[in-house]
Design goal:
Elements lengths: L9 H21 L5 H42 L4 E3 L2 H10 L16 H11 L8 E6 L5 E7 L12 E5 L9 H12 L3 E6 L20 H13 L5 E6 L1 H13 L8 E7 L5 H8 L2 H21 L1 H6 L16 H12 L5 H8 L12 E6 L12 H6 L3 E6 L18 H16 L8
Parallel strand pairs: 4-5, 4-6, 6-7, 7-8, 8-9
Antiparallel strand pairs: 1-9, 2-3, 3-5
């Protein structure tokens, strides 16, 4: 038997010691053996000891919480990305895209998909890119702007390789993620061109028509222009969020003609594949306050900035004055997008905008990059089985990363996992795309 005396717990010792001292001081005071000044001094000292003890316990508690979070980070957040594709495509990626097969270390102090999204947006530095702007007139009299970025002379390789980029819902060539991709493309010797949708990136509207996720006519015009200038140049597509949705629609529409159109591959980042889920996510409190309100405000601002174009139109399939009532993305779709593009209801529009049923039509190497905690396209909405069933499509899925986030450094001001994967996958498609020919 262990008969050695054991010390009582620390809190029991402190409680006993404090009670004893208080009793003794009280007894001495009642017998006039101690003055009130001495009592006050002793009491102050006792309080300071208790405060010190409380600070110590708080420090211990915070240290324990930090330890628990770091343990959680290493076990659940630092993981190998999931890669969903068929075996031939998997071997191709393993040969040429080693970053995809390494553990992803998200920025340790970012917690939650919303915070990881904002961390990239606010901290990532703006890489200076020298754009040359070109205005393109469309068949219906509308216009959009292209921003070209070419490699400098000492970096120039085969400059006829084209990276065609499209940003998210209200984004354009000035977004941080856009400048980073264009800068990286130029470093690799590629010519980058950003397609800014109608009214975006300070481009004025010339007709009372904007853009949506399903209509690819404007992109077809841009692609034809690129091919007319560089008829023998391969094109690699990079679409972010809505840009990825539109590229997915186009590639599914052209099907086997995708390669004949000079497109060697495509990379779509943080694109939603089920618009109904995205709509529900945007109605949740956290996303409604942050993303839904912000994006809707940007869309409304774009319309108001060009309100004269709408006011001068003789006939409009929608009531432009109803714009004042628009507070959410769904209301914007219902009031403007649905009637503008001839849909009967938002439901019909969302059915066609959801690309998860179109992936099997794609016939060029296509890489989707998504995070499980994306506020727009969460884990449960990602159609991984559809990617596995098609020989030309692959999905890279990280456990966390937010929406267009994927920060992977302590202070995520520079390139992210997206930029690293783009570097390897674009080069693989340009230089080794013929290795995928056996899939035919």
């Amino acid at each position: 038997l262990d008969l050695e005396p054991k010390a009582p717990p620390i809190m029991a010792q402190v409680s006993f010691f404090s009670t004893t001292i208080a009793y003794c001081l009280g007894t001495l005071y009642r017998h006039k053996l101690l003055s009130s000044t001495v009592i006050f001094a002793a009491t102050s000292y006792g309080v300071s000891c208790l405060v010190t003890l409380s600070s110590y316990l708080l420090h211990v508690a915070l240290s324990a919480l930090l330890f628990i979070y770091l343990l959680y980070y290493w076990i659940f957040l630092v993981q190998l990305p999931e890669i969903h594709c068929q075996e031939t495509f998997h071997r191709f990626l393993k040969r040429h895209c080693p970053t995809m097969f390494r553990k992803y270390y998200p920025t340790v102090w970012t917690v939650g998909g919303h915070f990881r999204t904002f961390a990239r947006g606010f901290i990532q530095r703006h890489v200076p890119v020298e754009y040359r702007r070109e205005t393109v007139t469309l068949d219906d009299g509308g216009s959009l702007c292209l921003d070209w970025s070419e490699p400098v002379a000492h970096q120039r390789g085969d400059s006829t390789k084209i990276v065609l980029f499209m940003a998210g819902l209200t984004g354009g060539s000035r977004e941080n993620y856009a400048t980073l991709i264009c800068h990286k493309a130029n470093e690799l010797g590629y010519t980058a061109v950003v397609m800014n949708n109608r009214g975006c990136a300070d481009a004025p509207l010339t007709t009372p028509k904007i853009y949506c996720a399903t209509k690819t006519g404007d992109f077809r015009t841009v692609l034809s222009l690129v091919h007319s200038r560089y008829p023998d140049s391969p094109v690699f597509l990079v679409g972010i969020s809505l840009g990825g949705v539109l590229f997915t629609h186009y590639l599914s529409e052209v099907g086997e003609q995708g390669g004949e159109a000079g497109i060697v591959g495509a990379m779509c980042v943080s694109s939603p594949y089920d618009v109904f889920v995205m709509k529900d996510q945007m109605d949740m409190p956290a996303s409604f306050v942050t993303f839904n309100h912000f994006l809707t405000a940007n869309l409304v601002k774009m319309i108001q900035k060009n309100i004269d174009v709408f006011k001068k139109a003789k006939e409009l399939p929608f009531d432009i004055d109803s714009l004042a009532q628009v507070k959410t993305l769904q209301q914007f779709d219902e009031k403007l997008v649905v009637p503008m593009f001839g849909y009967d209801s938002p439901h019909d529009y969302y059915v066609e905008a959801s690309t998860k049923r179109r992936l099997h039509h794609i016939s060029v190497p296509y890489l989707a990059m998504n995070a499980g905690d994306d506020p727009f396209a969460p884990d449960f909405s990602l159609p991984v089985d559809k990617f596995k069933s098609s020989p030309y499509t692959a999905m890279l899925k990280t456990a966390v990363g937010g929406h267009i986030g994927f920060a992977d450094s302590l202070w995520p001001s520079g390139p992210t996992l997206v930029d690293k994967v783009f570097t390897e996958f674009s080069k693989a498609c340009f230089e080794h795309g013929n290795e995928l020919k056996p899939m035919d």
